[in-house]
């Protein structure tokens, strides 16, 4: 059962960011549904994807001298810290933490996308900044 479904309230009308966010939501659902034997691998893929996702946004913010960069970055760091801890626990056979991670990050993400990422998208549009992959 999905912990989060992509819907119009998550879309922030920023093509590349929305594309990455859809992938993020897909990963959360994959973690929630992963069999124990596959969970560590799915979480590892999620962490890799999330590092790139957050790094991409942070590069955009740095290039724009986005004023709330520090606050936004701290939220990203917190999610990755928790995901890494869950990864260690799952690798030690504590599989119950995988679905807990997926559910908790889904709840966080709905608020994060609606607030911090929406403000970032508005700032990029205001500055005429068109983000690209890897930039």
Determine the strand fraction and express it as a percent band. Answer: under 5%
> Helix content range of the residues, please?
over 70%
Q: Main beta sheet: strand number and arrangement? A: none
| Beta strands, count | 0
Number of helices: 4
**Average pLDDT score:** 94
- Shape label: elongated
Structural class given helices, strands, pairing? mainly alpha
Order of helices and strands: HHHH
**How far from one another are the termini?**
35 Å
Which stretches of 5+ consecutive residues score pLDDT under 50? none
Cα Rg: 15 Å
Tell me briefly what this model is.
This protein has 135 residues and is mainly alpha-helical. Helix content is 76%, strand content 0%.
List keywords for this structure.
elongated, 4 helices, 135 residues, mainly alpha
């Amino acid at each position: 059962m999905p912990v989060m479904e992509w819907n119009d309230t998550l879309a922030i009308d920023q093509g590349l960011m929305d594309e990455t966010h859809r992938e993020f939501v897909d990963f959360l659902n994959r973690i929630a549904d992963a069999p124990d034997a596959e969970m560590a691998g799915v979480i590892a893929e999620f962490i890799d994807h999330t590092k790139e996702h957050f790094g991409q946004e942070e590069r955009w913010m740095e290039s724009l001298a986005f004023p709330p960069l520090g606050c936004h970055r701290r939220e990203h760091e917190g999610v990755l810290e928790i995901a890494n801890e869950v990864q260690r626990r799952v690798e030690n056979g504590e599989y119950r933490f995988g679905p807990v991670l997926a559910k908790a990050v889904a709840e966080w993400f709905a608020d994060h996308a609606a607030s911090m990422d929406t403000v970032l998208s508005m700032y990029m549009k205001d500055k005429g900044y068109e983000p690209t992959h890897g930039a």
